[in-house]
Every structure is written in structure tokens, then in C-alpha cells.
Amino acid sequence: MTLPIIDRVFPIDPEDLLPAITPDNQQFWDALGRGEAIAQNCDGCKRTRYPIVPVCPYCGGTAWNWKTLSGKGTVFSWVRYVRSYLPEFEDLMPYVVLSVQLEEGARMFGRLLDKLDRDAPISIGAPVEMVIERWPDGRHVPAFRFATKGK
Amino acid sequence: MNPRGAVAIVGAGSPGLFRASPDTPINLAEQAVSRALDDAGLKRSQIDGLIIQIGSPRGTDYDLAASMLGLNVRFAAQPWAHGRFGATVLTHAAMALSWGLADYILCFAAYNNSSFGRHGSKERPSYGESLREGGGPHAETPHAGLTAPVAGAGMAAQRYFHKYGINPGKLAAVPLAFRRHAMLNPEAVMRKPLTREDYFASRYIVEPLRLFDCSVPVDGSVAFILTTAERARDCKKPPIQLLGVQGIHAGPNEFIFGQPGLGVNQSDVFDYKPAGADDLVFRMAGVKPADIDLFTTYDAFSPIVLWALERYGYCKPGEAADWIQNGRIELGGELPVNTNGGFLSAGHFNSWGEILEIVRQLRGEAGERQVRNAELAQWGTVVGDSIIFGRDRTGAKELS
Q1: How far apart are CA B369 and CA B366, in angstroms?
Q2: Do A82 and B206 touch (CB under 8 A)?
Q3: Strand residues in chain B grouped as ranges (E)
Q4: Max Cα separation, chain B?
Q5: Which residues of A touch B207 (CB under 8 A)?
Q6: Range of the domain at B36
Q7: Looking at CA atoms only, how far is residue A16 from chain B in angstroms?
Q8: Do residue A97 and residue B207 have CB atoms under 8 angstroms apart?
Q9: With contacts defined as CB-CB under 8 Å, which chain B residues touch A117?
Q10: Which of A20, A51, A79 is facing B135, going by the closest CB pair?
């Protein structure tokens, strides 16, 4: 399943925002470039986990395989930034960061792309879907938007 | 050897905490160390152990601290430069004393915050930790725009409010209580009256947490000297014994600014059932939560106070926001909490100010904010590190 990829335009060149690519996480970041989100799935307890770690946080198993994520999830928690800490996000104020409960089980942080008023309510449990941002340096980053109605 | 009461704090000193101090960390350190030596009635040459919290660039590192302060020690240590290790420094000192690695251990934090950038900004020396494999130490994920420790606490708080159906406005009781305490503490940096109206009119730093839900960064220094219970009785002041201790908990379900089970970072989602009165710190000390006269905790952000109270069994999970209302955590209430004003109003000094407050309260030196007949005090954080302190009742020295 291919997820939508959109270009992210920055007010300044982004710097020091992304973790280094390592042998452990390279496939995750590469997959995003193809419009695909993947996460580790434990061979033992079959639970999906994120972030990328060598040992299953749920059962302690060390054998796992990549699993493709649907990108569908719900709002698990959220915070709203009303002032900027990072110049790359200055133009987005106010913006919301979600903790998303993915339907496969893991949770992932990502920015909410929908532009909301400063005091707009956000419902925990609201359906969201993953969108992939293409950054100017060629990296791809997961983000979320409210699920389109009727889909 | 029974660890209960085997080690005591015999000296404490601090020049105070400041919004911005012109003094360098080593000079701040010297001011605290000299005061602690005087307080204990010890000579500098008697110090043979040193543990420091917060190294360079904000603070002093153990090697130069020893050489610049004229200390010759046979045991030295320094944990990761994060606030969370304040009480752990004292626990490690107690263990080193018990093993005979030193006879008198000096522990201190001396550092400067005011000349560094804001937490969460790239100007902060620790920003690079946000890009660690697996995420930052407070859930920082910069590519998502998720930065600054306050956001991790906010993410956990938002979920906690939802899980238990809590009105976030109930949080106000924490900063309001601590400000009232700070107004009785001449060393607190925030001493102006704070009203409910002020609280609700204050801006969000990162929603759902407001300005007054966030601690006040300070410069400063605090030093303690610890020794064995026998040696402690020859010092100047009544020894304040470590009756029970337990360490920082860590693992997939522990998040620095959230209760287990809330689902922040890798934490699984489940109904948290804390050990409460069965926790090691209470069993070692041989006391129950109801025996504790005052409680101090890591209040970098107001919601984490709720989770600490729940963790140690003062109330049940999900109940703290109601439990703290109507003055229960204020001086004169059932369980005075952070009677010095805490990180929120006295200044964020990583537990050192709050443990100094425990020493003063148990010695009867807390002035206008003295808790009457305070005999047992607990330090305890949301991530499980805790120390129960008590005045040494076996020695000949009695309070005048």
C-alpha cells in the first residue's frame, strides 16, 4: 500500500532534525522514500513495535520481521506548540504533534498536517492516516492528517 | 549489615539558587562545600569521597572539582548529566560508605543554566540527545517537531487526563501550593503571590501545560556530606539518616515524565498498579506512607507530582488530581509536599533543593515553614527513585 508523499517546504534549510541512518533503521527510512511505512513485528508474540529496538518490549524476543503498516490509526495523545523552539517549524505555529495509535498496535509520534486554530479541540480516538513528507535533503518523514471521511 | 540508618547526612550547605548568578560553577561549588563543611564541623582534609551531579559544560566535572577545591579523595563518581540523578547520587554515596570505599563523602551539584539556550532548542548543549537511537530522553522526536522536555510531560498528561476523565484545571493546585510554600522560603526565586486567576490566565508553554506548570531554571549549588551512622554522631548537628532507599526504575514501561501504562514512548498501555506501601523504600525503612510527615518530589512539571503521589501509595492511580485539592499538600495539610517551593517556585535544582529542605525540616531549621514534629520525610519521584530520611533517635544529641 502506497502512502501519499508531499513536499515539505521549509523557511530555512533543515538541520539536525533527523536521527542518523544506521544499519538498524536504514530499511525504515528507505521504505518511507517509496511511500511505505514499516515497523518491526515480533516473531514470538506477533506484536508490532516502534521505535526500532533489538529486543521486543512486550515479550523479550529477539527474532522479528518487518511488517508493512497501513498508515491508519487514531489519536492516542497530543500536544500543541504555540511558540517555536526550532526555526524549521517557526512558520507552522501553532502546530500539533500527535502520538498515534497505529492499527497494527505500535504508537508513533508525528506532526498533524491539518492547519487548526490555536484553540481548536482535538479528540483522542479521532481517526488519522499517515502522510509522508519529502524533505529538501532527500529524507522522508512520517506525519499524519485526519482521516478523510467516507474512505 | 542492615542498611536502615547505616548512613546519614551530617552536613548541608548552599549559597542559594539564583535566576542568574555571575559566579562560575566552581565558585558556586566552593560556596556550597565550605558551608557544608562548617555545618558538619568537618575539615576539608577529612573528605575522602566525592560524587558530583551535572558535569560540563553547565557544571563541574569530578576531576577538576577535586583538584580546584583542594580535595584528595579515594572514591569519585559522576552520573549522566541529567537532573534525574540527584537522589541517586546520595544512594550511591550510602553504598560506597557501606563498602568502606570512603569515610566522608561530599556530594554536590553546582551548575549554571542561565548562560545556555532554552531546553528543546539547538542552543542547548544536550540537544543532540534528541537524535539518539530510539528517541530523546524525554520523548524528543525533532523531525516531528516534538522537542523540549515539557512536550513529553504534556503528552503523558494529556493521555492521563483522558484515561481517568480528569479536568486539567485541577493541576492548578500543585503550582499554587508550592508558591505559597516558596513565599515562606527566603531562598526561593519565585516569591510573589500566585492566584488561580494568574494560573488560568497564563499562556501555554506546550499545551496542555501552562507557564506555571513548568519549573523555573536556576543557577546555584547545594552540597551534602554523608558518613556512617557511628561517625555521624561526632558531627556538629543531629544526623539525618537514610532509613530506606530505592533506585531509579528503567525499562520499556518507564518514561521519565509519565506514569507506567500511559503509553508514552514504548510503554505498553495497561492499568498501572503501583507497589505503593509495599515498595522497597518503605519496607527497608519499616514505615508506611501514613507515617511520613512531609514528601518532596521532582516537580519539573506539575503533572509529575500527581504520578509520584500515586506511585508511593498516597492515593490510587487516577485519584491524585482530586486528592491534592483543598490544601492537602500544603503546610498544615495531611501531607505537605515540596515545602521549600519545589522546582516550580524555589527553583529547578534537580532534587538538591528539596533534599536540603528535608534536612532542614528534620533538624527543625525550616523557620516559618517548619512542619511541626517532623520526624520522617520522603523524597520520591515518578520514576521510582526514593529515599526516606529520619532524624537519628539513638544518639545523645537532641534538638534544643
Answers
A1: 6
A2: yes
A3: 7-18, 49-53, 75-77, 104-111, 204-207, 209-210, 219-228, 240-246, 294-296, 376-380, 386-391
A4: 61
A5: 79-82
A6: 7-116+215-391
A7: 8
A8: no
A9: none
A10: A51
The answer to whether residue B185 sits within a structural domain is no
**Confidence check: pLDDT of B382 > 80:** yes
At residue A112's C-alpha, the angle toward residues A108 and A115, to 5°, is 180
Backbone angles phi, psi at B75, to 5 degrees: -145, 125
Instruction: State whether B158 and A97 contact (CB < 8 Å).
Output: no
What is residue A149's predicted lDDT score, i.e. its pLDDT?
A: 65
Cβ count within 10 A of residue B370: 16
Asked whether residue B66 is domain-assigned, the answer is yes
pLDDT mean over B173-186: 98
| A85/chain B closest Cα distance in angstroms | 5
Q: Give the count of domains, chain B.
A: 1
Write down the pLDDT at residue B224. 98
At residue A68, does pLDDT exceed 50? yes
Residues 6+ apart with CB under 8 A from A133: A5, A6, A7, A8, A140, A141, A142, A143
Which pLDDT score, from 0 to 100, does residue B392 have? 81
CB contact (8 A) between residue A124 and residue B158: yes
- Using the beta-carbon criterion (under 8 Å), do A16 and B207 form an inter-chain contact? no
Chain A's closest residue to B154, CA to CA, is: A79
Flag whether pLDDT at B1 surpasses 60.
no
ipTM rounded to 2 decimals: 0.96
Chain mean pLDDT for chain B: 96
For A20-51, the pLDDT digits (tens) are: 999 999 999 999 999 999 999 999 999 999 99
For the entire predicted model, the pTM comes to: 0.96
Q: Is the pLDDT of residue B266 over 90?
A: no
Give me the pLDDT at residue A109, please. Answer: 98
Comparing alpha-carbon positions, the chain B residue that sits nearest to A80 is: B207
- Compare all CA atoms of chain B with the CA of A111 and give the residue at the minimum distance: B144
B142 neighbourhood in chain A, CB within 8 Å: 16-18, 86
What CATH number did the domain enclosing B357 receive?
A: 3.40.47.10
The answer to whether position B148 is within a domain reads: no
Overall size of chain B counted in residues: 400
Closest Cβ opposite residue A57 in set B121, B133, B252: B252
Contact B158 A77 (CB under 8 A): yes
For residue B163, being part of any structural domain is answered with no
**pLDDT number for residue B398:** 45
Query: DSSP per residue over B247-260, as a string?
Result: PPP-STT-BTTB-T
Q: Is B172 near chain A, with CB under 8 Å?
A: no
